[in-house]
Here is the input.
Amino acid sequence: MTQIRAARWKSALELEISTVELDEPGAGEVQVSIQSAGICGSDLHAFRNTSGSGKNRGLVPGHEIAGVVSAIGVGVGHVREGDVVGIEPLLRSVVCGTCRYCLAGEYQVCTADRGPGGGLYGEKVDGGMREMGTFPGPAVFLAPSGVDAELAALAEPLACSVHGYEKIGLRANQTVLIVGAGTIGLTALLAAKAAGSHAIITARHPHQQDAARRMGANEVIGDDEAGRTRLDELAS
Here is the structure.
């Protein structure tokens, strides 16, 4: 058993650093030295207690997780110690694996009764804002060569954008309008350009506009009168 440090929700607008014990990985599990954990908008809502529920109190936040494999359990063969990996945040332990959604690879909408166990890391169990974590092998994905842990932590928000495009069937040479140039919007821009699409994006702040241009946006629409006129043109 290893002692690690973790950031834990204490109350609204307050985190505390505590020392916790981490078990060695069991069969089929992977222990990861966490190098990067993104801050999602949902983390900010929980930090500010915007919803008023306080449901995350006592937990370690963070579901955008990446790091380096530090140990593997018996039966794990797809990664090895020293590999850079990203973590899928869905708690797979509550997925049945047999319904039509699971069989189609859409296990995030599994029809099984998830009870209190459903959700994400950082919402129902400790998340990524800790030094190390132990995760089920199927939730651990090897990063491509040349991708470090800081970049691999963006796999989860990028996957949201890719999934959306797959749902609408976006193809090369089609035009897509992306509303907003935050993290999700910018990953949507990357995914659209990778698909060969013509990407138009709205961006409120100058630094977002600059980032969108650097990332290859075909057109950047600002939050001003000219921008609103341009949106009216696109909608007509």
User: Anything to note?
Assistant: The chain has two domains: 2-153, 158-235.
